[in-house]
Every structure is written in structure tokens, then in C-alpha cells.
Design goal:
By secondary structure, this protein is an all-alpha fold. The protein contains 11 helices and 2 strands; from the N terminus they run αβαβααααααααα. The longest helix is centred in the N-terminal third of the chain and has 30 residues, at 68-97.
């Protein structure tokens, strides 16, 4: 059932994106379900000519719609973030899996296995997934925040919606990525062989078995991330609201860096558990938690926290810089 649900959710998202881009379709939501005040960020910004007029008109209503600008800018940001930061993610995975005790040992093993190219093993599936997943992520975040309001509660709700959309698309690719990263024996010549091997030995459900844990980890992670990010950008100006017209690129970098570091500390124990499940060492959240505690104790829950911060803090900066810059350029067309 979970696989069927994820398939239809992904199909629905792709169909929705096509409708948004070509005919300005939007999905009305019941006002009784979403009784939050509608807040428009773009009231003072002219919409691009190629965006449908119905999309702009619907900003006056309490409806959820996806903006083509936000989808494209989000996809671009996801590609930039994952390509630049992928080597740090490889190191983090090695430490969390237990094959290395610390960052230096992980680097030693990686270079012994195949040199610098080993740092990018498994990058293809994650880069392929980053484009649609981050497009969905930013599209749903901005659309939900326009409904829920630019408040702490609204930001947290928007982060939750964005995380569900993103993780449903990216989790199967993330499983393949981590299997490739841990393939020191080079059993898989490419990502496709890795997928076929995993599905044949463990079934199709193995690609989605970590999805509930991923939700549990990423929802508090990104709720923390966006709350810190939005708060810092407000504090850099008058403190009451974001000054969208006068924000600088350096402010996106600083706010994204700090938000990424703070969020990684909050969610790290669950990230450890998720890695254990995706590598096939355990099949459930509870058993993965026991696996880590029995092998490494409470300290093991934070094993690899340094490479994770090294990854999430700069990746947060790169992601937001890329997204805000791309969105600004697209809106200026």
C-alpha cells in the first residue's frame, strides 16, 4: 500500500507541475480545513509574462498553487547543493555505518578503495532525484506558506508539507546512493545494477522501508531549518518581517549556513537510525535504534555529527543562495 501511495503521489505531483506550467491549474482547498489568513509574498513583484494569468488571480483566494518559478529555482538549487556537497555526504555515511570511527579514518578508507572518484560513488541517483525532489520541496513550501501565513506556525506547517513532498520522491534514490557509497568491494558497476540487486534480494519495499523514519527525521529538521533561516533574515533588517527587495546574497549564505548547522544537531540521532535502515542492517525504527545503542551506546547516536554539520551547514548556504538567486533572476524576466 505504501508503494502504491507513493507512486500515485509522485504521478500526481508530475501531472500537477505540468498543469501549473501550461494552463495555470490550481487545486482549491477547503477553507474549513485551512483557516489561516492568506499572505502573498509577491504582491509588489510583477509576475513573468509566461506565467498563467489564472495563477496570479488565484493569489487573492485561499488556494494552494505551485509557481513555475519556484519549481524551477528549487530544482536548480537542489542540483547545485548535492553536486557540490556530495563528498561530505559520503564521509558521513561511512562514519554512521560503522565502517569508520571518525572522519580521518573514513577518508583513509575512501581513498584506499578508489581515490578521489570514490567520494562521488552513488552521486548519479541522488543528482537525478535532486531536480524533481527539490522542485517539489520549494514549490510546496512557498505555496503552503502563502496559505498558512508568514508566522512561526505557518513556516513550520510549510516545512512539513515541503518535506513530505521531497522525501516521497527522494527516498528510493537515497537508498541507492547509500548502497553505492558503502560498496567498497565494487559489486555494483553502476546505479542501475545496484537498484536491480537491492530489489531482487530485498524486494521493492526495501527502497521505501526507511520512508517513515525519514519523515520523522526531516520534518523536525526542516521545521528548525526554516524557522532559523526566516528569523535570521528578519533580524538582519528591522526584525518584524523579511525585506525581500533589499536582501543580499551574503545574507542568504549566512542564514542558510546557520540554519543548516542548527537543524543538523536537532535531527542527527534520527539520521543515524535512518542510515542503518537504508543500509539493510535493520528493518524497523525500533530495531535500528537498538542496533545503534547496542553497538555504540548513547554516544553512537551522535557518531558522525561533525561530518554531518560539515555537510548540512554549507549545503544549507549553497541551497538557499542558489534558490533565492535563481528565483530573483526568473522573476526579473
Amino acid at each position: 500500500m505504501l508503494i502504491v501511495f507513493c507512486f500515485f503521489l509522485l504521478f500526481g505531483f508530475v501531472y500537477w507541475c505540468v498543469c501549473v506550467y501550461y494552463c495555470g491549474f490550481c487545486l482549491p482547498l477547503s477553507h474549513s480545513l485551512f483557516s489561516f489568513p492568506f499572505v502573498s509574498r509577491y504582491s509588489s513583484i510583477p509576475s513573468p509574462v509566461w506565467m498563467s494569468a489564472s495563477l496570479c488571480e488565484n493569489e487573492a483566494n485561499n488556494e494552494l498553487h505551485l509557481s513555475a518559478v519556484e519549481l524551477v529555482a528549487g530544482a536548480f538549487a537542489g542540483f547545485c547543493e548535492h553536486f557540490i556537497m556530495f563528498p561530505f555526504d559520503t564521509i558521513k555515511t561511512r562514519v554512521q555505518s560503522g565502517s569508520a570511527c571518525h572522519t580521518r579514518q573514513a577518508l583513509k578508507h575512501i581513498f584506499h578503495d578508489g581515490g578521489c572518484t570514490s567520494l562521488y560513488r552513488g552521486c548519479v541517483p541522488i543528482l537525478v532525484s535532486a531536480v524533481p525532489a527539490h522542485g517539489a520541496y520549494f514549490g510546496f513550501y512557498e505555496a503552503t506558506k502563502r496559505i498558512a501565513g508568514d508566522t512561526p506556525v505557518g513556516i513550520a506547517l510549510a516545512a512539513c508539507a515541503a518535506t513530505i513532498a521531497h522525501d516521497t520522491v527522494s527516498t528510493p534514490f537515497d537508498v541507492v546512493k547509500q548502497r553505492m557509497q558503502m560498496d567498497s568491494r565494487k559489486m555494483f558497476s553502476n546505479s542501475l545494477r545496484c537498484v536491480l540487486s537491492v530489489v531482487r534480494k530485498e524486494g521493492l519495499q526495501s527502497l521505501f522501508v526507511s520512508l517513515p523514519t525519514t519523515f520523522c527525521m526531516n520534518i523536525p529538521h526542516y521545521a528548525t531549518y526554516w524557522l532559523v533561516y526566516e528569523l535570521l533574515l528578519r533580524q538582519m533588517h528591522d526584525g518584524s518581517s523579511r525585506d525581500y527587495g533589499n536582501e543580499l546574497s551574503t545574507e542568504f549564505l549566512v542564514a542558510g549556513f546557520c540554519a543548516g548547522g542548527a537543524a543538523s544537531v536537532v535531527s542527527f540521532p534520527l539520521d543515524n537510525v535512518k542510515t542503518i535502515i537504508q543500509l539493510g542492517h535493520s528493518q524497523s525504527f525500533a530495531s535500528a535504534w537498538r542496533y545503534v545503542l547496542m553497538r555504540r551506546g548513547i554516544y553512537g547516536m551522535f557518531s558522525g555529527v561533525v561530518p554531518r554539520i560539515m555537510y548540512t551547514a554549507p549545503s544549507g548556504a549553497i541551497m538557499m543562495f542558489s534558490y533565492e538567486t535563481a528565483k530573483s533572476k526568473l522573476l526579473s524576466f
